[in-house]
Batch of 2 targets.
Target 1
Amino acid sequence: MTSDSLTRAFALLLKRDLLLAMRHRAEMINPLLFFVLVTSLFPLGIGAYPELLRAVGPGVIWVAALLAALLSLDGIFRSDFEDGTLEQLLLSSHPVSVLVLAKVLAHWLVTGLPLLLVAPLLGILLDLPVDAIRILMLTLLLGTPVLSLLGAVGVALTVGLRKGGKILSLLVLPLYVPLLIFAANAVDTAAAGLPVSAHLLFISALLVLALSLSPLATAAALRISLS
Amino acid sequence: MGQTTGKGYDYRFSPSIHRPLLNQTVSQNNLSLEATGLECIRDDRTLFSDLEFTLNPGEALILEGRNGSGKTSLLRILCGIRLPDAGSVRWCGTDITRLGPDYHEHTAYVGHRDGIKLDLTPLENLAVARALGTPGETSPTAALEQVELYGYEDVLTRNLSAGQQRRLALARLLVTDSLLWILDEPFTSLDRRGIALVESLLEQHTGKGGLLAVTSHHAINLDNPPVQTINLSA
Amino acid sequence: MFNNFFHKLASPKYFYHIAGRLLPWLAAGCAVLMLAGLYYGLIVAPPDYQQGDSYRIMFVHVPAAWMSLFIYVVMAGAGAIGLVWRIKLAEVIAISSATVGASFTFLALVTGSIWGKPMWGTWWVWDARLTSELVLLFLYLGIIALYSAIDDKRTAARATAILAIVGVVNIPIIHFSVEWWNTLHQGPTVAKFGAPSIDISMLIPLLLMAVAFKLYYVLVVLMRARCEVLDRERHTGWVKQLAEPQ
């Protein structure tokens, strides 16, 4: 197969998934609402003292983002598994890891990118300074693809199981720990007015690592789940 | 760049991928599907063992057997989705687990589930199927005509009947250029006219030198191609 | 050829008998080393000038933590071998290690917690090592959960191998992240679970316990693996022969 037809397959698969998401537009809003709701629960739970909120804000927003990502993960492969199109991906003449990348990209565009748009609102709710909000958006931009990429491995391992969604969090959340630590701390540090280039570089490194390795692991896991 | 992608980097973890096949041209001479010593164990039961056959161009393999006798598992082994518990399947002399996408280039599979998205139109579904496989000469529109779905190009697949959806699934075979067709119960949900239509497609395919492996509960009437029958309940 | 040698060594029947013969020796060696280690650690080694006698739990905590990491790496390695070369024995060893590894991790957490109580008054402290061990425990539990969720044992073994490999790549990253995180949120008391200057009288029992734990791991893994082999091969002739009354 030529690289030309591979590019076309990638583009068409991406377009297909985006089209499918658009035809169920109403569902796209669920992770967003969850994100906002969970973040809003914290002041209710711990009290609305401004200093307290400012101290816990970044961590709270990032944990909420993690949970929102987790909620939407199952959709990457579930419907494809049920109607038989997932098998067709494995039987394609193109490398499965590239096709997986197309699907994860579509998933991120639909579920991860919108979180970025809502983040400033949450920053305001938790009284974050403007610099911190800017860094928050940057960490979300770099970090949400990592959530989708790593999550895809977990979903691929559990897609064939009847109650796969139940153990998905157990499989995936430990892998999210480094990202959470660095991203939340980046926003915290930015709120204090200090430079965060080290944090951003580390998160970018995580992104590059995830981009290069997780499609391979996902492809292998899909083959195992569908055998 | 024109460099062939997809060779040797992500399929079956196996040390033998260190020397991937490079651009092996499929000549009509060595074209064949061979199975030797195939064994399949499911839930601690051996469904079949020591299964052998050779399929040459223009021939059809029909699998018969009761429900649960392993027909679907055998087809999935032939596709390469499932690994056999013993034995091997060879395409043109090489084990399919070593070929990876090179083998999938030449095969098309329609299983129990249709493999189409209900929220896309038939045209959109076929466009994707075409891009994922080896594009054939038949355009999606022409393929839809051949399976008598002319006029339904832009209707959401969800709104088609079960028989129409099945025909759409089989139309995938027409838009890709595949030598080997692997079909699991292709006649499900089809009426008599649909069955006759599909049988003529199968005849056409084997007539052009294609290979066919198919299971069915109904008796399949294929006049021309030499037919091998394997009964798994035996 | 090399491949043939591997396959003979990996024959479940061969393994079952060889492992059976090794068991008593391993058990004896493990018992001796553990008694020696405990004797040297609890009685011979002097009390620490800072922590008094309560530091002695280190002789269980530190080797347990080492084992938890070691076993995970072995599990990932065996899983990878099982995946690439499809050797059944490798799959068996991988899954037999999972529970043992989880137990060592749990032991490390509990002993770490016990160590912390007399020092800081709380049962749990978010020290770098304890937090890393906690995440490691979740990784182990994930593997065990995934294995039990899949019905077919061979598919389950392959899936957990992938998960273990993904985990093993992430462990250094997690460890580094948690260490870094810990340096930021340092409380007034520094949690120093490793004695900074380790005297030879403390080093010897530590190493004795480390080796004893390793023997214990091998012992338990072989025992579990033998059971797993019997389970997987229960339809073959040699297993049926074993089951028949003499």
Note: The two ends of chain B are 53 Å apart (CA to CA).
Target 2
Amino acid sequence: MLINLKNVSYTYNLNMPFETDALKSINLKIKRGEFVGIIGHTGCGKTTLLQMFNGLLEPTEGKVFIDGVDIHQNKAKLKEIRKIVGLTFQYPENQLFEETVFKEIAFGPKNTGIKDINQLERRVRKAMKMVEMDYSMYKDKSPFSLSGGEMRRVAIASILAIEPDVIILDEPTASLDPQNRKKLLKLIKDLHISFQKTIILVSHNMEVVAELSQRIIVMENGRIVMDDTPKAIFRDNVERLETIGLSLPQITYIMHKLKTMGRPVDSGVLTLEEAESEIINLINKRR
Amino acid sequence: MKFIRNLTIGQYIHKESTIHRLDPRIKILITLFIIITIFLINTWVGFLVVGIYLFSGIALSKVNPKYVLLGLRPLLFLIILTLLIHFFTTQGEVILKIWILSITKEGLIRGFFIATRLFLLIIATSWLTLTTSPIGLTDGIERLLSIFKSIKVPAHEIAMMMTIALRFIPTLMEETEKIIKAQVARGADFDSGNIINRIKNMIPIIIPLFINAFHRADELAIAMEARCYRGGNGRTHYRTLSIKRNDKLFFIISFLVIILAFVFGKY
């Protein structure tokens, strides 16, 4: 088991007037190579949960194991954990600070102990190739002279250059234009399939989560309320999801509607392509 | 890495109490007078009078005294430092000698005296901020400063600057925390190394923080402009301040306490 959370609770401002429970006894196991989507209403504890995975926050109760190691038992090992688990926050472009794109992307690997300049260059080249940025064209540019979408890609490349096994992305496509968004989603897919990374993705966009994830975790008020395949979740829990404040992918709504109209379709359809073949089937059957 | 948290200085705790409802102008003025009194009086009895006054004020405000004391924490170092300096540097009757340092009886008394003074000063100011909302505070300051409008003191602009500054303290703290976390996730280490390295390690925090703050300032300016903000001239207030019976009572009692403190506080 790659990531294992045992009975994890977290309280902000413990013993203060503004004490709030963000996580309530979470039990969660994530296997190597999984693609997990996390959805939930704003303030349900998603971001707090993400910070448990790489030890940025220490649970007020419970334990976090990465690769079988209790990560808070030995503080010195936390740095090692961050080599295994890479986390990009929402709007990661807000963390850029270096003079050049090269230095920016090399910051992470340098921190994890890579001193050799050739090796650093190799890592930066590789990370930039992954995010589709031309090395010689961008390496000497200031990150602040780039466009929003490019800045986002540099920020993500700076995590990829650490070469972590697990990549956690918090709302990676927020406020990106359609083109950059498409590119980024393709990259995330690639990371999972070609580079065999374990991916944990948080998004408010149901289409994205439904299409990419193999497993979806639904959170509400600091608890995990559902944990299943996207098909099962979007097929059977329409009302429950809506009371939580979530929705279905638009195409799934259409399929649900067709079903209530008495057509024999699968209401767990999540993508346009699936819906297309489902409807063609339906038409063929009627002939 | 310890993140910035639990900062109670300047924090407002809302409670329904007589103290909370007092006119902020009166509260600011009285706090100012009390601070001056604490600086001027020179006897323990004087301090006792002020101390009793402040703690009954806290009791009346229904704010948990724990939070008042929590406000002391960041300044504890300063208090202990003054205490030690006075212990070792005052001339007089030696009662304890450690190596070349000697503690004198006079130093001991003097040290505790100054520490008490600092303690009371902090209590007085945190009493004000704990029981007065930031809006009330800036409103009060604006009204008090508008007396000086005839000599071209831009009272409204100063108050607006304060409101904005107060408004953005939590935002910027949150942002700092977020940036620290993001850099830690990229393997940055803020806890080890010598002092020069540690200062160098702050760069990945400070640069993004400044850039974001400038962005925010710019956006805020545009948003204010879009809503036709034109400064203080002819601007009215949603909440008008008025002096009520309780305010008068509070003012008179406080003034009596200050006089009393001076009577007992003269050498």
Note: The beta strands of chain B are 94-98, 101-104.
